């Protein structure tokens, strides 16, 4: 399977809103352009996105505009799935510190529960293993490289794009 993983932050992936700052709107338009270009140039057989529930995302919107529509899947772990996996409390109490360059932002620390979530994302993406065409995946920046490595280890061709999240907010 050929997979493109796009690194996002979870506010960037939401469709444009009047309340978006100028910078956020610019980044959302860049994400939209990246996805539109990728979809136009390749045969995308599925889109998998770690996204906020009940929020419209740019990728979901674009998937629905195709003829035929591109299958879109939200691969976020639900609260119940996190509880069942035994990681709910660990994720709820994730350690973080203030960013010294921007005290309004936090730097999240990776925790063992992230690996469990990345296994979950990988398993969900692999449901498209018989996909006829390229698979497009949007994940929070922290998860992109671990998921890419898991998929590569299983023999898949994976490319990752990080340009829309130029500041790393995790360690």
SSE ordering: EHEHEHHEEHEHE
Largest sheet: 5 strands, parallel
The SS-based structural class is: alpha/beta
Number of beta strands: 7
Distance between the first and last residues' Cα: 30 Å
Q: Note the overall shape.
A: globular
Uncertain ranges: none
Quaternary state reads: single chain
Fraction in beta strands: 15-25%
Strand order of the largest sheet: 3-2-6-1-7
Write down the Rg: 16 Å
**Helix share of residues?**
25-40%
> How many structurally independent domains?
1
Helix tally equals 6
Average predicted confidence as pLDDT: 92
Compact description:
With 171 residues, the protein is of the alpha/beta class. Helix content is 39%, strand content 23%. Helix 2 links the parallel strand 2 (44-49) and strand 3 (72-74).
């Amino acid at each position: 399977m050929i997979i493109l993983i796009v690194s996002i932050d979870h506010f960037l992936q939401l469709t444009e809103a009047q309340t978006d700052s100028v910078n956020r709107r610019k980044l959302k338009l860049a994400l939209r352009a990246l996805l539109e270009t990728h979809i136009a140039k390749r045969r995308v057989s599925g889109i998998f996105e770690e996204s906020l529930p009940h929020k419209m995302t740019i990728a979901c919107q674009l998937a629905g505009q195709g003829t035929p529509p591109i299958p879109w899947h939200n691969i976020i772990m639900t609260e119940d799935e996190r509880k069942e996996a035994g990681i709910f409390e660990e994720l709820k109490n994730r350690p973080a510190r203030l960013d010294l360059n921007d005290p309004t932002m936090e730097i999240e620390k990776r925790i063992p529960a992230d690996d469990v979530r990345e296994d979950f994302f990988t398993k969900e993406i692999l449901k498209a293993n018989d996909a006829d065409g390229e698979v497009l995946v949007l994940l929070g920046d922290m998860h992109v490289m671990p998921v890419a490595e898991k998929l590569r280890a299983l023999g898949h061709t994976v490319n990752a794009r990080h340009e829309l999240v130029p500041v790393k907010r995790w360690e």
